[in-house]
Write a structure and sequence with these properties.
The complex is a heterodimer of chains A (119) and B (424).
Chain A lengths: L1 E4 L10 H6 L5 E4 L13 E6 L7 E3 L17 H10 L6 E6 L5 H15 L1
Parallel strand pairs in A: 1-2, 1-3, 3-5
Antiparallel strand pairs in A: 4-5
Chain B lengths: L1 E6 L9 E8 L2 E9 L6 H5 L7 H5 L7 H16 L5 H32 L4 H4 L4 H22 L8 E2 L2 E2 L5 H26 L11 E2 L1 E3 L10 E4 L2 E3 L4 H4 E5 L6 E5 L4 E2 L2 H8 L5 H10 L11 H22 L15 E9 L2 E9 L5 E7 L1 H16 L8 H14 L4 H4 L9
Parallel strand pairs in B: 6-12
Antiparallel strand pairs in B: 1-2, 2-3, 4-5, 7-8, 8-9, 10-11, 13-14, 14-15
Classes of the chains: A alpha/beta (119), B alpha+beta (424).
Chain lengths: 119, 424
């Protein structure tokens, strides 16, 4: 199972998914830009941090907040997922949202459990 | 009756800007465009750092134009050190910036500009009915991203380009992959031109002159002289003809040339260098039907689409002809001096200037972005444009004015400088 991991490695509050991914038993695809999802085949699994999340949660793209695009800087994962949906790009996408901090090894176990539940 | 129109947040541009417009009996009494970005302090941050750190720091001025700032800073520092880069280094720098331009133009054209012309609030709103167009944009953006990531080792804030050469060179296989990717988006670039050539643009003529780099042989991106018509200016003399100033309630830098407004960007480049465009880009330009030189800022959108074709062609040529040779980063001895980097970036001419001491420490910096040069022209264009649309409903006036501003593809984040204070 491929797991697409997002987050800016230079921002502590945004890079935690990359740290957790190192302990997850899955094929990790490190993504730098949301348009990399266009290449993904089959069901798409995404790992990213979620602001104010207290535990690991499965999220559908519909629940991700995305504003209209006001500037080029708004071309983020949230916008892109919304755009793919509006464009009718039918991919089965599930996001494993994790807190911005915590024990990476124990969170990785929960991520693996989430992935198994999606099999 | 006096009417005041205030746009507290102009959307679909880079950064934050505000417009205050006061109209009385059909005449514009006040027109004030201000940047409301926080101060950026980059010129101060660079001071005291080593000469080979400038490009890494100033890259952070903008996520959209990070490659442009990297190359402008490197060229300025090399100018100060009296260093001439190798042909391969220059070609790879050009390729990197072409990738960035493909990404930037495609994103601006399809996601910020097109919704205006097709009558949608945003790109999301038009996605259902215009999937092929947005798919084209994504293809072009991915191709641009691929070039940047391959050469720069990252798709934002590239780290491979440095003073004296490249820390990591692409492999022959990398160039082959880029060639395939560019080949596959050529049709998308042409279709983009067809689409933007078919749109209806308002009639308007700006009173500002158009300035860009001008080069005798190549469509200029990284080399040339700054000019308009037959007027030419040496980059080392830029301080004697460009004047920077600040408005009291704006964090943006305004720039005038010999006390007069002017504009930079894709339209200025095409006005000055259209005969140097690739064959297909020239063909698309002819099909646009616009008469050149044009001072209609709305035509900047067509110019960006034409440049997309040119950039794909030029990048293809580099990827097809450049045989990568192993080259170490050249060692350059620090020395005291001042250098200027003057390059064309997606939104116009970008200037970086550094003064180094004998140890290569930066003692003074000046950066002038395209939007800083365009700001006064945008403001005065609005003043000139508004009386002709005053009879329209308020919402339509706001849309027309926003379209005018957006046609310049401004980046207020990059034009925001710290304010200089007279403490006397």
């Amino acid at each position: 199972m491929k797991l697409h991991v997002f987050g800016n490695e230079y921002l502590k509050e945004d890079s935690f998914a990359r740290e957790v991914a190192e302990y997850v038993d899955a094929e990790i695809v490190s993504c730098r830009s949301p348009d990399e999802l266009l290449d993904a085949e089959g069901p798409v699994r995404i790992l990213d941090v979620v602001k104010d999340a207290e535990s690991v949660r499965l999220i559908t793209p519909e629940r991700v907040k995305a504003q209209g695009m006001l500037s080029l800087h708004d071309f983020d994962l949230g916008f892109f997922l919304k755009l793919m949906k509006e464009m009718g790009m039918e991919k089965e996408i599930k996001i494993i949202g994790i807190p911005q901090r915590g024990n990476p090894q124990s969170i990785a176990k929960e991520v693996e459990a989430c992935l198994k539940s999606l099999d | 009756m006096a009417r005041t129109i205030t746009l507290d947040h102009i959307t679909k541009i880079e950064g934050h800007a505000k417009l205050r417009l006061k109209v009385d009996r059909g005449k514009v009494k006040q027109c004030h465009l201000t940047a409301t970005e926080g101060a950026r302090y980059f010129e101060g941050i660079v001071k005291g750092r080593r000469y080979n750190e400038a490009h890494e720091i100033t890259s952070r001025i903008c996520g959209i134009c990070s490659c442009a700032h990297v190359i402008a800073a490197i060229q300025a520092v090399e100018d100060a050190l009296g260093h001439a880069p190798t042909k391969q280094t220059k070609q790879l720098r050009l390729l990197l910036t072409l990738g960035e331009r493909i990404r930037s133009h495609a994103t601006h054209l399809y996601f910020l500009s097109l919704p205006d012309y097709l009558g949608y609030e945003s790109a999301l709103a038009m996605a259902k009915n215009h999937r092929p167009e947005l798919q084209r944009a994504l293809n072009l953006m991915r191709c641009g991203n691929g070039i940047i990531a391959t050469l720069g080792a990252r798709d934002l804030h590239p780290v491979s380009a440095t003073v004296g050469g490249w820390l990591r060179l692409p492999k022959e296989g990398d160039m082959q992959k880029l060639r395939l990717s560019l080949d596959s988006v050529k049709k998308d670039a042409i279709a983009t031109c067809d689409l933007f050539n078919s749109l209806k643009y308002p009639e308007f003529e700006s009173k500002g002159k158009y300035f860009s780099l001008i080069h005798p042989k190549d469509y200029p991106f990284l080399e040339g002289e700054f000019g308009f018509g037959k007027e030419r200016v040496k980059k080392s003399d830029y301080r004697s003809f460009l004047t920077e100033y600040h408005e009291p309630d704006s964090t943006a830098n305004f720039v005038v040339k010999s006390d007069k407004r002017y504009f930079v960007g894709a339209l200025a480049r095409i006005n000055n260098n259209r005969k140097l465009l690739s064959v297909d880009a020239q063909k698309m330009l002819r099909q646009s039907g616009i008469s050149l030189p044009s001072r209609n800022p709305y035509h900047n959108t067509i110019a960006q689409a034409v440049e997309l074709v040119h950039c794909v062609d030029q990048a293809l040529e580099i990827c097809s002809t450049l045989k990568i040779k192993p080259e170490e980063v050249e060692k350059i001895a620090p020395r005291a001096g001042t250098g200027v980097g003057m390059i064309e970036v997606p939104r116009g001419t970008l200037w970086h200037e550094y003064t180094l001491d004998a140890q290569g420490i930066i003692t003074r910096t000046n950066i002038i972005t395209p939007t800083a040069q365009n700001l006064l022209n945008i403001q005065e264009d609005i003043r000139q444009f508004v009386p002709r649309v005053l009879k329209k409903p308020r919402a339509q006036i706001i849309l027309d004015v926003e379209k005018l501003i957006r046609s310049y593809d401004p980046c207020f984040s990059c034009s925001a400088h710290f304010l200089e204070v007279d403490w006397k």
